[in-house]
Amino acid sequence: MFFIIHSLVTSVFLTALGPQNRTTHFVTEFVLLDFHGQREMQSCFFSFILVLYLLTLLGNGAIVCAVKLDRRLHTPMYILLGNFAFLEIWYISSTVPNMLVNILSETKTISFSGCFLQFYFFFSLGTTECFFLSVMAYDRYLAICRPLHYPSIMTGKFCIILVCVCWVGGFLCYPVPIVLISQLPFCGPNIIDHFVCDPGPLFALACISAPSTELICYTFNSMIIFGPFLSILGSYTLVIRAVLCIPSGAGRTKAFSTCGSHLMVVSLFYGTLMVMYVSPTSGNPAGMQKIITLVYTAMTPFLNPLIYSLRNKDMKDALKRVLGLTVSQN
């Protein structure tokens, strides 16, 4: 499904933005400064990001393979987790490869169309992640608060419907804001002091102020962030209330352990996301904004496999079985 959406949207955006690039905008490309500094520091940073990226692909890829190959994990909880790991692979790939190329490049340029394509996929995948975290919280709510009804509600068919809604919904949210921003006149300068095409730096480069477009985009961002977040908050409020009613300490510990990994991921992802897009960041230095963005674009996808695999016995056993099977076949 992701590949179908990717190909369709790419062709549409290239068609829509390509001709306008020559007729409406003076700027034909942007310069992404990323983490500029001395050459030695650039080399160290490149090595660190490359290792982080490869480990992220390896960790999330292992989870995807474990969920796919181990029939014991063909349950709604692990189907959601497998899709989430697959999403993380594409989420980090929407920014990090281009950032690695820019670190080694002398020009550090990205085309006008390429910038907005990166913008689209980066924010669409981030929105899809918000939706998946909300659905995963709902799954935990059903498992703990309505255990007897869980098998009849969270059926395989309903789980697949939720997965499709997350993917399709995430990719349908951002065309309007991106089209609005892309229609602004960009007549120079074209230097973005960031490693991604972000709405804040793009608004700063526009030749005219567009308060209405900024209001629409930031309101939209807030809705995308707070909608799923409030859903997660509601689910875990009911979960905590139900867990506290469990008489035995062992039962409460087991119930909390099933939610602990997900809560850690939610806290890490939403904490940095809200600092970047909900709290006022105009007074923050560009370097701080880059670090915050790097946390939720690169560090979070890297940590997620560690959080889920190290705290989940079934996942650890499945990974051992899959790795053992691979080794024995070789």
Automatic annotation (TrEMBL):
InterPro entries: GPCR_Rhodpsn, GPCR_Rhodpsn_7TM, Olfact_rcpt, Olfactory_GPCR1. CDD domains: 7tmA_OR11G-like. Keywords: Cell membrane, Disulfide bond, G-protein coupled receptor, Glycoprotein, Membrane, Olfaction, Receptor, Sensory transduction, Transducer, Transmembrane, Transmembrane helix. The chain crosses the membrane at residues 46-66, 78-96, 116-138, 158-180, 223-244, 256-279, 291-310. It is a multi-pass membrane protein. Its main location: membrane. It comes from the Eukaryota. Residues 59-308 form the G-protein coupled receptors family 1 profile domain. It is found in: Cell membrane. The keyword Cell membrane applies. GO terms for cellular component: plasma membrane. GO terms for molecular function: G protein-coupled receptor activity; olfactory receptor activity. Belongs to the G-protein coupled receptor 1 family. Odorant receptor. This is Olfactory receptor. It comes from Pan troglodytes. The lineage of its organism: Eukaryota, Metazoa, Chordata, Craniata, Vertebrata.
